[in-house]
Please model this.
Amino acid sequence: MSAQPQGNAPAVAHGAAGGIAARAGGGAAEGPDEAAIINDMLSGYLLLVLGCISATLVIWRLSTGLSRYIRHVSCLTNDTQTYFARAGSKWSWFKKNVQYSPIFSKRHNREFQLSSAINVGTLPTRLQLVFLLGYFSTNVAFCVMGIDFSKPVGASATVFINRTGTLAVANMIPLFLMAGRNNPLLYLLGISFDTFNLLHRWLGRIVALEALAHTLGYLYRTAATKGWSVAFEGIFKSSFLIYGFVATASFVVIAIQASSVFRHAFYEIFKILHICLAIASVVGLYYHLGPKGFPQIKYLYPVMVLWAFDRTARFLRVAYYNFGSGGGKALIEALPGGSTRVTVTMARPWFFKPSQHAYLYFPSVSLWQSHPFSVAWSEEADSPSGEKLPMDRRDILAMKKTTVSFILRGRTGMTGNLYEKAASCIDGKMVTRCLVEGPYGGMHQMHSYGTVMLFAGGVGITQAVPHVRDLVIAYSNGMAATRKVVLVWTIQSPEHLEWIRPWMTEVLGMEKRREVLRIMLFVSRPRSTKEIHSPSSTVQMFPGRPNIDTLLAREMEDQVGHMGVSVCGPGALSDEVRRAVRNKQYTGAIDFVEEAFSW
Model:
């Protein structure tokens, strides 16, 4: 860029704003070169602000990671962990009122459902809202800063047109970065894909509004002297304008069809159309800017590189884990409650960690669609060929066959079709082709917590089971600070226990499991009291829904070390757990992790 700001970002942005306003105050007086420099500077400041925020989050992630590591190592042989159980008043206030806080009292992940078919989305957290409002306001200010609208329309509108167009293209860089599944910032910043998805949607709306303002500004400038009919006709007489109009139209349609109502009602159509329109917008912009040598083309090149990188990385992931060595074969089992258990044999070893997820492709069910699902279980088994003995590490790895398992709740579209096909087969089982794209995630590990509470609702158990297995094994081997693991699972019917029965049977048979693990099952819709029975003191079953506050308070009475609370399930459950954790911040040291996939 022509000007690279240095030093403290807020101070620089404030000083730059004043300088730009002074330089651009003449509106019509500034020349085209000076206007281009100012537009470049403003775009640079937008990206600089995002870079400074990212750098701050990297420092935050490193410091909290170091704190967890010290706590983990210090508590390996400490059964009381009293020091780490104390709550610091300043951190407790920050977590309660900023880090974990919804906008209002409780609602965050629970969707606003107008009907069974109409969903208008969820609310961001307080911290997310502050960022979104700040970034939106900055873009609005930069679009009009220093433009003297009292000057003749031709002069002031030209500055506005160039400004909004430049900012729209510059904002496409973070827009496409946040859309990628292989976004490197996911791991550098420790931010969930769900949060990046939220930011991606709002950045898309900002780009669409700036592109629309750019196009309307051009039409208004032309109409001011030649009339609206001439302005509209002129768009279709020049390839330069046609391509620009295609890009703007694509952005606007994306903004409309990506709204929660359309996205949830017609997701399969939305996804295909979304990709096609995104490609159309980039192609339109390229031929709008490139042939005339506009400087804004330099912002479009990173966009194209980011998109190509993400698509290439996705293809390589799929190819590596699924092609060859008998990979990509899936056993589909129809389960009670309209769910399916999918067990996929991988072509190569998968180094599994709890809280990972993957995208599944079923070519025989839905050719182009992929959806994210938490990995519920993974294991390796020897598969000797019998032809020769292993001679090196490569031969040993080739003999290992990794299987990964998922639970899919049948709804509409792909998951519903998959369940129906499996249920129609003999014994409710079938074998089909499945491609697994992953693994992704796995950032939230619980080894450093003395007390761990895992809340799950329905198929959200797929996020909790890997943590349970991982923590029990680590405790048995003396590799975790964890001394208490409490799993709270809410299901509608005892039949749903079948979803994870083979895996929990293995967990319940693990060494030292009774010393560290307790399981509480809540059946929200039991058909009779006879269905409710507790197998043992460490595995208990209850009718109704759990009282989150009571359960959390009970565990905190004899809390060991720092407590980690994780939740995965319906939005209402997540919001209840979030509220309970916030209310207990001053009682003891407690962290909150929410696993969610918004779409």
Q: What stands out?
A: Residues 32-74 form the longest helix (43 residues).
